[in-house]
Design goal:
Elements: H1 2-12, H2 46-60, H3 74-87, H4 89-93, E1 97-102, E2 106-111, E3 121-126, E4 146-147, E5 150-152, H5 160-175, E6 184-189, H6 200-209, E7 217-219, E8 224-225, E9 236-243, E10 245-254, E11 258-259, H7 268-281, H8 293-300, H9 308-313, H10 315-326, H11 330-336, E12 339-347, E13 353-354, E14 357-366, H12 372-383, E15 389-396, H13 409-421, E16 428-433, E17 449-451, E18 456-457, H14 459-464, E19 471-473, H15 474-490
Parallel strand pairs: 3-6, 3-7, 7-17, 8-18, 9-16
Antiparallel strand pairs: 1-2, 2-6, 4-5, 5-19, 8-9, 10-14, 10-15, 11-13, 12-14
Length: 504
């Protein structure tokens, strides 16, 4: 009996990398075709496919780096605007498309549909990137080099691929004389990597002032995950329906400077180091059981063999075990709690001077079941030292979960398009975005915010985002264009596509 229990525990641990929220089976995968005009097939000529990859390669070569909210490569940002104007001429010259520059460098496209009774939607992407020092890269990070079937460079996955894919798909549709029935917006931010206050936030304010309300919004984050969960051979699509909040918190200690030959009992560095050590050694509460994750595990249980399916299908009994197991891996731990990450530490002016100031910055990603104020109170209690000052640099609460039931238009349109473009995928699952995106600035415009990149992502791909050797396969990028080409047409429907049948 003991051996059998150990076996069950081991199989339960397979789920340590689980980051999804619910599962759909593959029955009734095809919804109804959009009403009205005949559908344009997503078939592209060899010349069009060459233009696709060349457009992305050119975009990667423009170093649109956001260093901080106060510093960015504005020359490159302006150059990028000129670049897309040149590469996608039909988008800019079509009479029913209005183009505006917002916040100096961000771009807003209003595509007017023929049926005003259909509520519009929005596609989001951003073209700024994080810094990419050349050290460690196999190719120059802003080369846009094509090698072995891949396009290399910073932004190939985050997120210039989405920018050019959206514009490319629309360009190709317009060339084929497409006129949308449902109006939609395209918002391309220039400062997402530094909180999006001058880009997405200003676009949102502009649209709110115009009285715009959206049926749904699609942004980055989710992927088709391949090999991410051990012992799950089939890839599955993850659409993020909720997003964590965030706090950037500066901890500061001030002391009287002095000579190192006669040091005080504690220095500013020592006091601050002890405080951040307590934060690292004291994880914030495990919130497993709140939100959709518990239901997800029960639904996903049917994708596993015995006895794992029994463990996950009976969380009313086994949830304490699963709760503890998820704490043991840093990825799954991020799904069940607010995370704490020490990101900068600055102190000292000379080797023989007691430093007057020590500062550290800690980044918290707030679990959807918590708030900024709750986390700050927990942090204050953990630090437990009045000499350590807490300064909030930026903070925002988690976004509420968007609906993903059978009547959720945006979710069902994404699901339907996934099943059309990726027929091999029979699991479509909503989940939590543990990062932060521009979509949070648009929550007053829609209650249906979905985050999905139509790309396969293997484990090694995660490390390249904000890391080194970021790349995308030419075939994957072509498929991304195809996905958006079909999604735009699918959105012309007058009703929610036929949903999956959930099997329990």
């Amino acid at each position: 009996m003991a051996r059998r229990i150990v076996c069950m525990l081991a199989l339960g641990a397979v789920l340590l990398l689980l980051g999804i929220a619910t599962v759909s089976t593959s029955k009734d995968l095809r919804g109804k075709e959009p009403q009205g005009a005949s559908r344009i097939p997503s078939q592209f000529s060899e010349g069009e496919r060459v233009n696709m990859k060349e457009a992305l390669k050119g975009a990667i070569q423009i170093p649109t780096v956001s260093f901080s909210s106060e510093e960015s490569n504005t020359t490159a940002l302006a150059e990028f605007g000129e670049y897309i104007y040149k590469v996608f001429p039909t988008v800019f010259s079509t009479s029913f498309i209005q183009h505006e520059v917002v916040g100096g460098y961000s771009h807003l496209f209003t595509v007017q549909g023929s049926d005003p009774s259909l509520q519009p939607y929005m596609l989001l992407a951003h073209f700024d990137v994080v810094p990419a020092p050349a050290e460690g890269w196999d190719v120059p990070p802003f080369s846009g080099l094509e090698h072995d079937g891949f396009i290399w460079g910073r932004g190939t996955l985050d997120n210039k691929n989405s920018v050019t894919a959206i514009l490319q798909a629309l360009e190709l549709l317009l060339i084929r004389n497409y006129i949308p029935q449902r109006s939609f917006f395209i918002a391309l931010g220039h400062d997402e990597e530094v909180l999006g206050r001058n880009g997405a936030q200003k676009i949102s304010t502009l649209l709110q002032a115009r009285g715009v309300q959206l049926a749904f919004i699609v942004d980055e984050c989710g992927f088709i995950l391949d090999g991410v969960i051990p012992n799950v051979k089939k890839p599955f699509a993850q659409i993020a329906v909720e997003e964590k909040g965030g706090i950037n918190l500066m901890l500061q200690v001030n002391m009287t400077p002095g000579h190192s030959s006669a040091p005080p009992k504690e220095t500013s560095i020592g006091i601050l180091a002890a405080a951040v050590s307590r934060l690292e050694q004291t994880p914030l509460p495990n919130m497993f059981g709140d939100g959709p994750l518990k239901t997800t595990l029960e639904l996903l249980a049917h994708e596993f063999s015995f006895p794992t399916n029994i463990i996950m299908g009976n969380l009313w009994l086994s949830w304490p075990l699963v709760r503890r197991l998820m704490e043991r891996n840093y990825i799954t731990s991020a799904l069940v709690r607010t995370t704490t990450a020490l990101t900068t530490f600055n102190a000292g002016i000379k080797v023989n001077v007691i430093p007057p100031v020590a500062q550290a910055t800690v980044n918290f990603r707030i679990h959807p079941a918590q708030t900024v104020q709750e986390v700050l109170e927990l942090v204050k209690n953990i630090v437990a030292d009045d000499r350590v000052q807490l300064h909030v640099l930026s903070a925002f609460d988690p976004l509420p979960a968007s609906p993903f039931d059978d009547q959720a238009l945006g979710y069902q349109l994404l699901r339907r398009t996934i099943q059309s473009v990726f027929p091999e995928i029979n699991i479509v699952a909503p989940g939590t975005c543990i990062g932060n995106t521009d979509s949070r600035h648009y929550m007053n415009l829609s209650n249906g915010i979905y985050r999905f990149n139509p790309l396969y992502l293997q484990p090694q791909g995660f490390s390249s985002i904000h890391g080194i050797n970021e790349k995308i396969s030419v075939q994957a990028y072509e498929t991304q264009v195809k996905f958006i080409f079909e999604l735009i047409q699918n959105a012309d429907t007058h009703r929610v596509p036929v949903p999956h049948v959930h099997e329990l």
